[in-house]
Amino acid sequence: MAASLFSVISRFLEEYTNTTPNKLKLVDAYLLYILLTGAFQFLYCLLVGTFPFNSFLSGFISCVGSFILAVCLRIQINPHNKGDFLTVSPERAFADFLFANTVLHLVVVNFIG
Amino acid sequence: MALFRLLSSLVLSGLVLGAHALTPSHHLAASDVARLEAVLSQSFTDLQSAYYSIVGLNKLGVSVADTDEACRFLQSNVDPTSIASLFYAAEASQSLSGCEIPVSNETRDFLLAAVSEDSTISQIHNSVSTLSSLGLPLASQEVVSALTSRITKEDNVYAITLALQTAAHLSQQADLSGILEEIEDLAARLDDLGGVYLQFEEGLEATALFVTAAYALSDHVDMEPPLKEDQVIQLVNSIFSKKSWDSLSEAFSVACAAAALSNNRFHVPVIVSALGPATVSHRQPLLQLQVTNVLCDPLTSASVVVESASSVTTKSAILNQSPFSLRDGIFELNFMNSQPASGYYQFAVAVTGDSRLVANHIELKVKVSTEVVISNMDLSVVDKDQSIGTKTTRVDYPSKAKNSFVADSHQNFAMSFQLVDVNTGVELTPHQTFVRLHNQKTGQEVVFVAEPDSKNLYKFELDTAERKSEFDSISGTYALYLIVGDATLENPILWNVADVVLKFLDEEAPATVQTKTLYVPKPEIKHLFREPEKRPPTVVSNTFTALVLSPFLLLLILWIKLGANISNFSFSPSCILFHVGHAAMLGLMYVYWTHLNMFQTLKYLAILGSFTFLAGNRMLAQKAVKRIAAEQSSRLAKYRSLR
């Protein structure tokens, strides 16, 4: 059981490194960063307590929101999905990503207290 | 059929008897009439005030102090060119005996010319009254037609009242029916306030003048004014509720109204009030009533009868159709002759003798008071197990028992007495029968209620053991007082009957009685401010800060490993500007966190954002062009290589 799981994972990683274009890997690295940041914040909240609850919420939602926006960017610039996004060029996707992030972080900074 | 008629007549009579007619709640007392006279007796400053004073006092039946002086004043101040001036002088001179205002032919023609459709109602009224007072002829029909046409143009209360007053001076042959109808129209304009008052919104003066004019005209044409009895009483309430008057004209209008209501052919309101408190007793057995008209003149020709007098508690009738006798202007009845028991009685009094009387059925509450005497006051100390015989001591009011009584926890102290009406010998049950025990040393007092049994014998028993909590178990000598009081008793009683020594079993109470510390400063309340939340130690916070920031390092490492670089960085102006703008926006976020509020941030963000957007748009467009060109060239190269 463990052996098959391990082989599945290694196979997955291999295919990933080989087939994914570099751009997408960059975005994936960013996604991992965001994920870890959010996880560590949540861990702090579990261990130490929710004292400045608004700060915790704003930080956590910042991570969640950024993650979602980055996922959207990844979907839109993936050449595989070009057929679904005929009207959206990669530059347009990036511009949308930047704008949405600005709005998100405006709200986050407002709430961080 | 006959039964039905009998039934309906019974119902009708029941309704009539049950109908509660309105009686005046406000009226002038003799002192108010005197005050009115004083106001009107002030020395006159001009012709108008002279008119008000002279005519007003005349209406009250009083004459001016110096009639000759007044007459000379009128003659010297009259102005023959002013209709109002002539009116005041003429009317005032009529009230003074032997005073004549000489009038020339020119003045007479001037007055007659004023009677036309072009003059105001006030002018028509003044000229008609003047002509009538001076005994000069006038054409009544012309006046009527002038008034009728003016009434349609001047619709206010004062004008129509003056029109009514004018019509009262005209000949009875003239057709006054149109003007007579105005009384009813004007009465409809009165405001009913709470069912008690009826007055014009223009105020007291307008209402009083209306009443005067309406009765003057009604008397003149000998037709009853269309005012119901209740309305007349409501008018009385309105006009006589004010007991001090703002101006001479207001006082004058009240005097006119009072005269009109006390002496007209149709409605004379009756004012009935008791002289002093409505109380009778053996010392004062006469019930005295003042029956007057609105000017406080006693109605000596009327006959005053008690239709029924019944006790409020037992509802049994004591009197039926008993007359009052008149003595010195006061109507008296000796109520004690009917031997009423003490208490309250409801009287229904009727004033008859004149068909004009209004509000002549009155309800009155009369109190019969008496004196009480305490008899058979017996004090005793009874043993609880009743093994030792009781020793009863009789005490007579107002002396005190010679020996004091001792009662400890095995004994009860008992008291019994009777309260008797001194005149009739009937047993009484007053409202207040209290037994008060007062400890002279500590100042403590305890009050109990003595209750009567079925035979009206009052009993009081003090169970020492049971009642020790009221006494705080303090033994000692207590002075015993009996308190008797009631509204119908003329001699309330406070009697120190005896001294009682009470012995309680356990002396639980402290030696000194604590006076209630009500007025001593209370303990201070310390306000507890909200404790700030416990924060984790700085070490923990710092550790986690480092932990949360660490993935950023990981990101940089991964990016470098993936080969991210800025080799493609074009130094075009839009590119640089875009990055600068974007960096500025991030900086603005930090500044927002530390210094700014949302409005300021949005302002700066709008500026920076639009700038960055334009630069970024340019930059990305250039990038897109480059990418498409690169794709096309690579596709072309691939196509070429395939070929």
UniProtKB/TrEMBL annotation, chain A:
<feature type="transmembrane region" description="Helical">
    <location>
        <begin position="93"/>
        <end position="112"/>
    </location>
</feature>
<comment type="subunit">
    <text>Component of the oligosaccharyltransferase (OST) complex.</text>
</comment>
<comment type="function">
    <text>Subunit of the oligosaccharyl transferase (OST) complex that catalyzes the initial transfer of a defined glycan (Glc(3)Man(9)GlcNAc(2) in eukaryotes) from the lipid carrier dolichol-pyrophosphate to an asparagine residue within an Asn-X-Ser/Thr consensus motif in nascent polypeptide chains, the first step in protein N-glycosylation. N-glycosylation occurs cotranslationally and the complex associates with the Sec61 complex at the channel-forming translocon complex that mediates protein translocation across the endoplasmic reticulum (ER). All subunits are required for a maximal enzyme activity.</text>
</comment>
<dbReference type="GO" id="GO:0008250">
    <property type="term" value="C:oligosaccharyltransferase complex"/>
</dbReference>
<dbReference type="GO" id="GO:0006487">
    <property type="term" value="P:protein N-linked glycosylation"/>
</dbReference>
<comment type="pathway">
    <text>Protein modification; protein glycosylation.</text>
</comment>
<feature type="transmembrane region" description="Helical">
    <location>
        <begin position="55"/>
        <end position="73"/>
    </location>
</feature>
<protein>
    <recommendedName>
        <fullName>Dolichyl-diphosphooligosaccharide--protein glycosyltransferase subunit DAD1</fullName>
    </recommendedName>
</protein>
<keyword id="KW-0256">Endoplasmic reticulum</keyword>
<comment type="similarity">
    <text>Belongs to the DAD/OST2 family.</text>
</comment>
<dbReference type="Pfam" id="PF02109">
    <property type="entry name" value="DAD"/>
</dbReference>
<feature type="transmembrane region" description="Helical">
    <location>
        <begin position="30"/>
        <end position="49"/>
    </location>
</feature>
<keyword id="KW-0812">Transmembrane</keyword>
<keyword id="KW-0472">Membrane</keyword>
<dbReference type="InterPro" id="IPR003038">
    <property type="entry name" value="DAD/Ost2"/>
</dbReference>
<keyword id="KW-1133">Transmembrane helix</keyword>
TrEMBL record, chain B:
<dbReference type="Pfam" id="PF23860">
    <property type="entry name" value="Ribophorin_II_3rd"/>
</dbReference>
<dbReference type="Pfam" id="PF25147">
    <property type="entry name" value="Ribophorin_II_C"/>
</dbReference>
<feature type="domain" description="Ribophorin II C-terminal">
    <location>
        <begin position="529"/>
        <end position="627"/>
    </location>
</feature>
<dbReference type="Pfam" id="PF05817">
    <property type="entry name" value="Ribophorin_II"/>
</dbReference>
<feature type="transmembrane region" description="Helical">
    <location>
        <begin position="601"/>
        <end position="620"/>
    </location>
</feature>
<comment type="function">
    <text>Subunit of the oligosaccharyl transferase (OST) complex that catalyzes the initial transfer of a defined glycan (Glc(3)Man(9)GlcNAc(2) in eukaryotes) from the lipid carrier dolichol-pyrophosphate to an asparagine residue within an Asn-X-Ser/Thr consensus motif in nascent polypeptide chains, the first step in protein N-glycosylation. N-glycosylation occurs cotranslationally and the complex associates with the Sec61 complex at the channel-forming translocon complex that mediates protein translocation across the endoplasmic reticulum (ER). All subunits are required for a maximal enzyme activity.</text>
</comment>
<feature type="signal peptide">
    <location>
        <begin position="1"/>
        <end position="21"/>
    </location>
</feature>
<keyword id="KW-0472">Membrane</keyword>
<keyword id="KW-0812">Transmembrane</keyword>
<dbReference type="InterPro" id="IPR055374">
    <property type="entry name" value="Ribophorin_II_3rd"/>
</dbReference>
<dbReference type="InterPro" id="IPR008814">
    <property type="entry name" value="Swp1"/>
</dbReference>
<dbReference type="InterPro" id="IPR056790">
    <property type="entry name" value="Ribophorin_II_C"/>
</dbReference>
<dbReference type="InterPro" id="IPR055375">
    <property type="entry name" value="Ribophorin_II_2nd"/>
</dbReference>
<feature type="domain" description="Ribophorin II N-terminal">
    <location>
        <begin position="28"/>
        <end position="262"/>
    </location>
</feature>
<keyword id="KW-1133">Transmembrane helix</keyword>
<feature type="domain" description="Ribophorin II second">
    <location>
        <begin position="270"/>
        <end position="368"/>
    </location>
</feature>
<dbReference type="GO" id="GO:0008250">
    <property type="term" value="C:oligosaccharyltransferase complex"/>
</dbReference>
<feature type="transmembrane region" description="Helical">
    <location>
        <begin position="576"/>
        <end position="595"/>
    </location>
</feature>
<feature type="transmembrane region" description="Helical">
    <location>
        <begin position="544"/>
        <end position="564"/>
    </location>
</feature>
<feature type="domain" description="Ribophorin II third">
    <location>
        <begin position="376"/>
        <end position="502"/>
    </location>
</feature>
<protein>
    <recommendedName>
        <fullName>Dolichyl-diphosphooligosaccharide--protein glycosyltransferase subunit 2</fullName>
    </recommendedName>
</protein>
<dbReference type="GO" id="GO:0006487">
    <property type="term" value="P:protein N-linked glycosylation"/>
</dbReference>
